[in-house]
Every structure is written in structure tokens, then in C-alpha cells.
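pipeline/complex-builder :: batch 7 item 3
reading input block
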Amino acid sequence: MTLSLLTRFFKKNNEFNKFNKFNKFNKFEQFSLVSRQDFNRNNRNYVKISKKKINDNEDDTISPQLYALAARLNIRVSHPKLLLQAVTHKTYDNSILPSSEGFRVLGNHALGLYVTEYLHIKYPLIPLPCLQKALTGYCGHVSLATFGQEVGLQHVVRWQPITDEYLYKHSKIYSNMVPEDKPVKIKQVTIANVIAESIQSIVGVLYKDSGPESAQKFIHDHILSREVKIQDTLHLEDPQKELFALMRRKERASPIARLKGESGALSSNPVFVVGVYSDIDQLGEGYGSSKRMAEFRAFRDALHQYYLKEVKDFTLPSSVNSPEAYANFKPTEIGDTTPKL
Amino acid sequence: MNKAKYLVSKPKNGVGGFVFQCRKIEFNYCERSGSSRGMIEYFKTRLIPFAKRNPQIEIIVTPRPSKHPLVRGTYLNEMQKDICVKNLDPKEIDEYVQLIRDNTGYKAKARFKKPVISTTPSVRGIWSPFNTRPHVI
């Protein structure tokens, strides 16, 4: 019964809509057929219609800043439009070029591959959560964004902040399937995000266009050459407990801390040197102005010595390209990567 | 101990690949004034080879009427360095342009007080109680 009433209201309103100019101030506004787009302040749709561009090709010109960037980063691509494609974000409207999403996904995976391979071989005994932290430290969004800004990408990327038209095309917010009560989360697009994603696209373009070796060279030159303090990934609250667990797992004697030497114990600046031993072998050493401090540092040093052990000479598996290299390839020893600390 | 949620990597320019610090050089000149004569001669003879040798720098030439000629360099850290090249020969202007090209955005005076900026520890090591040789009678 109520449905028929509603339809009657609807029909009445339709007749009014034809003749009544001021639809918005209509008493039956809730049932009006005006689209939701009209009620927003930044209505890009209206703006676009008013500023119609005759020749859309003018927007896809390559700026001199892009050429300069390519020379600065030593990027050699077969066609410069590929670079322009990589640097254009998906939110950018006025482009005929195809989307860069494919390159971005490919570049993201290539980055993950080369950085993980490098870290895993360089630190064979690193625990998994530390490896993941180091990985985000090198090729996470924040690091890529800082790298991009240091290199001048912010003047080259083409993007737009999220507008109604973009939402209309890309999300379900304006479809009838989403109920009005539930708030829909929209991922904010910032210049940092755009820069990080454009770097991933550039890596993808290099991989596809010039081959995986050029992508690897780019990553090693600009991303892996940066410094991430590997000690910061290993966060220890109780190093003594961790070391005991480690020794038990390794089936070695439990660690004992011994005072190796001291100086100025009753003065204002004492120095105590403590060593941590498992039977005869010294695992770690620490100094401090109190015995407890020195002991803490000794246990922490022992864990750093074990988990963050660095291998200096290694050959990366991805650098094995020719049959001669494959014949001479000596794989590095596989370490014991713990899933948890 | 960095307890931040995200670890961020620090730059080490030159360890892997070298990123050139000067990103843009802007030349201002006046068509009529006498002080820009050398500058105009520089544009005709030396600027284009310079631009070809340095593809990583964006070069802009704009007239600035009734003002002395100016060379302005912009760097990757968004700092600028300007040099007025009034009444100079093209050869002398070339030297100044080379100076701007070779520079970074940082102030030159600070590098006299701290010539080495590094994240790695010192070569001989900072003193630690482990590596001492106690005095023996």
C-alpha cells in the first residue's frame, strides 16, 4: 500500500519538474530526480564542459623537465612517450596515453624481487620481520617518495586530486548498490603517493622496454645504494631472554655474562666491560657506566652479531645471465631465517 | 634505536649512481642594454653546446627588459643561486655558468666549518674501552 503512495508522489513530481524552474526548493526534494553530483562544491563535470579543449593532443607534450629527469637518472627508453606514460598517474584526466597501472604492478614486483634478493643474501640469518622492515625501508612508499622528491620528480608527475568525476568512474560511491548510511572509505591521493607510484612505473617501463638488467641497474644505483640502518629493524625489549632462547634452539650452552674489566667503579664516570659467553666462546661484548647497562649492551651485541651478520662477497642469482656466468656461479650458503624472533 | 613505524632510507649520492644536483639554469638578459652584450654573444656562440653537454639541466632563456643580465641556478633542494654577469665577456660568463652548474644548493660557507658530512663512522674508529692497551709495568 505504501509503495503505491510513493509512486503516486513520484508521478506528480515528474509533471512539476517540467514546468517548475526551482526544483531544488521543491517540497518533494527527497524524491527528485536530480543527480547527486549537482550538490557538491567542486563539480568537475560542469567545469569540464565549460572549458572544452579542441585539441586534446596538446596535453600529451613532453616537458623539458621530463627529458632532464631522464638524463639525470640515466634512464634510456626506446620512446619518450613511455616515460610520460609512467609519470602520469591514474587520476590524470587529460591524457590519451594508456594507463600506467600495468607498469606500476610490474615495477613494484621487480623492486620487491631485486631488493629482497639483495637483502636476503647479504644478511643470511636475519629474522623475517626484520627483513620485511628493511624491505619497506628500501622500497616502501615513504622511502620512494623521499627519493623522488630528492631527484625532482614532483615537477614532472601529472596527477589530479580526487574529484567527483573520478569517483563516479572508479568507485561504487555513486551507484545505487551502496546504502546511504554506510560511509565509504576513499583513499586520499597525495603527491607523495603519486611520486612513489611513478617510480614503480618507471622501473616497470625499464624492465619491459630495456630488459630486466637495466631495471636491476636502476634499482642498485638509486634505491639500494641508500642507507637503511639494519640495527633499527631489530627491536629488542629483553635481549637476555632472546639470547637464551637462541642458544637453546642452537643446542649450545646457555649464555653467561661475566665482568671482563672495569675502571673507575666509585668515580663519577665508571666504565664496566661485560662479555657474554657460551662455554668458552664469547658471543658479545658491551660497555656501560653501570654493570646492568653493560650486561644489556652485551646481550644486545650478541644478538646483533648473530642475526645481523653481513656477508661481504656474494654473487646475486639475478646477475647470472650468460652460460659462462652460470658455469662459474657459486651459490652462497642458505641461512636460517627464523619466522619470528 | 628507531621506533618509528616506517623506516626511511637516507640518500648516499655517488655510492651507486650519481644524481646531478643542478636542475635548472635560467638566463635573463635585456635586448637593448649595453650590459647584456656579452650575454647575447654567449647565447649565440656557447650556450647551445653547453646545453648539449648537460642534458640533465633544464635551460631557460627569457628577456628581462631594462635589467642587468642574470644567471640563476635552481637545485634539487629548491635553493637558488644568482650571479649578475653585467658587462662580461662570453668567456667570463662561461666560467660563472660552469660554477653554477658544478654547485649544490647548500651554502658554501657551511662547508668550510664541516667539510665532511657522513653517516658512516670514522675510519680509525671512535675510542672504545675494548681496544685499549692497559699500561703494564
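note: The radius of gyration of chain B is 23 Å.
queue -> next item
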